[in-house]
Design a protein that fits this description.
Blueprint: H1 5-12, H2 21-32, H3 34-46, H4 52-64, H5 70-105, H6 112-133, H7 139-142, H8 144-149, H9 154-179, H10 184-219
Length: 221
């Protein structure tokens, strides 16, 4: 469905510059409706720098303007999420376990046993990691790669990805729908959460490296 004239004016008046991510996403929704929103989210999954916290609330705002229905917005954005996740799953599957171990062996400050323990952890908790990981900023895309490396059964992966993506998409699309032309507020809050997640990951990485360095120092004669 194409945008009505009034809806087009409303979307173009959104707080994001017309040439920005919001303008690009609005153009896809204007041209293709629900499938356009789905394509934008599929690309967001493959290229995480594209922010779902902008695309999804804007899609909800478009739904509030009558550009598409809520059902269409949720269906197509969830389908896009699954398609993008399957692409990353495929990359992990092609990379494979043997290449992962060969690459891991070349990294400094790591041990083969670390990767083995990670694989064992994923074998025990992979289903929860995929389901919940789809609702965590930043990691919602990356979690698909280890699922492919570990060859999680594809039907299980798709089911968990669909469920987790539907929850995430529903929250952000409905927030944009209810907030109307203030949809950009959603991105501000999710952006704060993303920064917190990245900060925690950075702290964990620094702690891991420091532990490895201390361990190597103790092993020296």
């Amino acid at each position: 469905m194409h945008l009505t004239l009034s809806a087009a004016r409303d979307l173009s008046a959104a707080p994001e510059p017309p040439g920005g991510i919001a303008g690009w996403a609005a153009g896809l929704v204007e041209a293709f409706g629900g499938p356009g929103a789905g394509a934008a989210i599929a690309l967001e999954n493959v290229f995480p720098p594209l922010p779902s916290e902008v695309i999804l609330p804007l899609t909800g705002f478009a739904a509030s303007q009558g550009v598409l229905s809520i059902a269409s917005a949720l269906f197509w954005t969830t389908l896009g999420s699954v398609v993008g996740a399957v692409v990353l799953y495929g990359i992990g599957a092609v990379f494979g376990r043997e290449r992962m171990h060969a690459w891991w062996a070349k990294l400094p400050l790591v041990k083969a046993s670390d990767l083995v323990r990670t694989e064992e952890w994923f074998a025990r908790h992979g289903t929860k990691a995929i389901l919940l990981g789809r609702m965590v900023p930043v990691f919602r895309s990356l979690i698909s790669v280890p699922a492919g490396v570990e060859r999680m059964p594809l039907p299980v992966f798709v089911t968990l990805t669909t469920a987790g993506s539907l929850v995430w998409n529903t929250v952000l699309v409905m927030a944009g729908y209810w907030l109307g032309d203030q949809w950009d507020v959603v991105g501000a809050y999710v952006g704060v959460v993303s920064k917190i997640v990245l900060a925690l990951a950075a702290v964990a990485l620094v702690g891991y490296v420091a532990t490895r360095i201390r361990g190597r120092n103790r092993e020296r004669p």
